[in-house]
Amino acid sequence: MKRVVSVSLGSSKRDKRVEAEFFGEPFLIERIGTDGDLRRFAEWLQKLDGKVDALCFGGMDIWLRCGRRKYALREAWQLAQLVRKTPVVDGSGVKDTVEREAVHWLQRHGVVDFQGRKVLLVSAVDRFGMAEEFWALGADLRVGDLAFGLGIPVLLKSQRAYETLGTLLLPLLTQLPIRWLYPTGKEQERIVPKFAEFYAWAEVIAGDFLLIRKHLPMPTSSCPKPLQGKIVLTNTTTPDDVALLWELGLATLITTTPELNGRTFGTNVLEGIIVAHFQRCPEELTRDDYLRALSEMGWKPTVRKLNA
Prior knowledge:
Layout: E1 2-8, E2 16-22, E3 25-33, H1 38-48, E4 54-58, E5 63-66, E6 69-72, H2 74-80, E7 88-89, H3 92-108, E8 118-121, H4 128-136, E9 140-143, H5 145-150, H6 159-173, H7 196-201, E10 204-206, H8 209-214, E11 231-234, H9 239-247, E12 252-255, E13 259-260, E14 263-264, H10 267-278, H11 287-297, E15 302-305
Parallel strand pairs: 1-3, 1-4, 4-7, 8-9, 8-10, 10-11, 11-12
Antiparallel strand pairs: 2-3, 5-6, 12-15, 13-14
């Protein structure tokens, strides 16, 4: 049995352990949350190195992309260097493949017509493939990296403006502590309503679910169902997350990764499964390799109608 473990900076309350079959072989898939503790994260990496088939970084990216350039997050890169034997993945290979394909699958199958659709992508630096496909299909896209990453209440519309700003800021931002840029540990459990006008504007809310959840609008007497009629396109949702979205009136939840025992794991885990199957380093895999693996897995986005 192959073993794929996601070590996450996130809350240990979201931990999970499941057995599943992919490519005709059994897999044990685990998530271990470290509650925002980088030292515990490092200890788990060193403990599991050489004992599992793939180690997945959860709650952080190693690589961020803007345009043709890639930038390594300093803390994540330093942690990755602790692993000597086991392949390390952060989901970036799958994001650049499965999430592009997910957007086109939804368009081809008439699930969502993105032409002219108002789309809020909470962060594009870790979903740049998805962002490029939204722009290519003519979506009315707004990118929320400044708002959801830095707290600056500005959305970017132009791809050129986004790439120019990213080229200027990412070399600096990637040197900052991860906790300044992304919710970790118990911060993942908090919802601080903010940017209500951005959520209200959007017809489709896309991207990392913890960033979407971070500032979700809560019901009020004047707006008891703030997500009524909307679509969320994301991954890594738990049954509690689905219940929350249902209560807020969400019409449709679409996840890009497989559902296992009621929970969708992250792109990092999906990439770990594929890397473990090929028994190759992630740097050696091409987009065609990922697409072939997804085809063999019978992959397609999971579409759930939550409210009529």
